[in-house]
Design a protein that fits this description.
heterodimer; A: about 130 residues; mainly alpha; 2 domains; two-stranded parallel sheet; 2 strands; B: about 160 residues; alpha/beta; five-stranded mixed beta sheet; two-stranded antiparallel ribbon; 7 strands; about 20% strand; globular
Chain lengths: ~130, ~160
């Protein structure tokens, strides 16, 4: 799947299906199980039919309005649970700052993970692990 | 016909402009010069075991969350995970919709419905998630990607659905 045509064209994977939705919606719109299903069915149909390595198939889906295109890489300031007071030169970068500690969706998630994994979690986050 | 003629966002160009305005050196996008590898699909998808790999920063409640700077780690998420235990964290997209309905970046309910209706043969026992936005293409190529390939192969996947954000 891809919503970033030029990036995918540069990487050149064997098969790709393009969805012209804002970032963060590669497999559909929220709370739209019918639309999500239609999207993936179209992608799998394209997958079955693919014969040309590197082709990107446009699934032809439309988001509904184009307002998101004005700032298409905007992160959400509320995603970070750490203070973002010290943003430095990142002021004109609308993405979220690149913290190098685990960024939990909620404090409850943080407490649960710290209970389970102990104190060394910042280092363990740099390798693959199962739970 | 309709009048919808929007041009897809060129994220390479948008990123170049952003980096220029910040005084950063240009981002080194991956450009693959060689033809992509090709493995033919040899049986119907209704007989295939499908894997899911997603880069939206998805973790399961109780797991360690991803961090935002060059995090090349991955998480293992069982394909029968309760959907309400899934979380999203990321610096490069607006996660509000993903946090409200994880299927927009990790289509686990959608895939399970396709299996129920026999459009797909089944899912691998485990799915894999990572962070994306990793500056080091070398770490992805030499560490993360081979690890995920090995995991997918050991899971008996016939094909994998890759969902970047």
């Amino acid at each position: 799947m891809t919503s970033a045509w030029t990036i995918t064209a540069a990487v050149n994977p064997p098969r790709a299906a393009f969805v012209d939705y804002p970032l963060g919606h590669t497999t559909g719109q929220a709370h739209d199980p019918v639309g999500q299903r239609t999207l993936l069915e179209a992608a799998f149909t394209a997958f079955e039919a693919a014969t040309v390595p590197g082709a990107i198939v446009d699934l032809g889906l439309q988001w509904g309005d184009d307002a998101w295109r004005a700032d298409p890489m905007r992160g959400d300031s509320r995603t970070a649970t750490t203070s973002q007071a010290d943003r430095g030169t990142a002021r004109s970068d609308s993405r979220t700052e690149r913290f190098d500690t685990p960024q939990y969706q909620s404090e409850e998630d943080r407490r649960l993970a710290e209970q389970r994994h102990g104190e060394e979690i910042a280092c363990r986050a740099c390798v693959g692990f199962d739970d | 016909m309709n009048a919808y003629e929007a041009t897809p966002v060129d994220y390479i160009e948008v990123t170049r402009r952003t980096y220029d305005s910040l005084g950063y050196p240009p981002y080194a996008w991956v450009h693959s010069e060689e033809p992509p590898p090709w493995t033919p699909l040899t049986k119907p998808l209704s007989d295939c075991r499908i894997g899911l790999i997603a880069s939206g920063g998805v973790y399961r409640r109780g797991q360690i969350a991803f961090h935002y700077r060059d995090d090349a780690s991955y998480r293992v998420i069982p394909s029968d995970v309760p959907t309400d235990e899934l979380r999203a964290t990321h610096f490069a997209y607006d996660t509000r919709d993903a946090r409200s309905d994880i299927n927009v970046v990790f289509p686990i309910d959608t895939l399970r419905s396709l299996v129920r209706d026999s459009r797909l043969g089944g899912l691998t026992d485990d799915c894999y998630t990572f962070m994306g936005g990793i500056y080091s293409a070398r770490r992805v190529r030499e560490e993360l990607a081979p690890a995920l390939v090995e995991r997918m192969t050991s899971q008996g996947a016939d094909a994998a659905l890759l969902v970047p954000v």
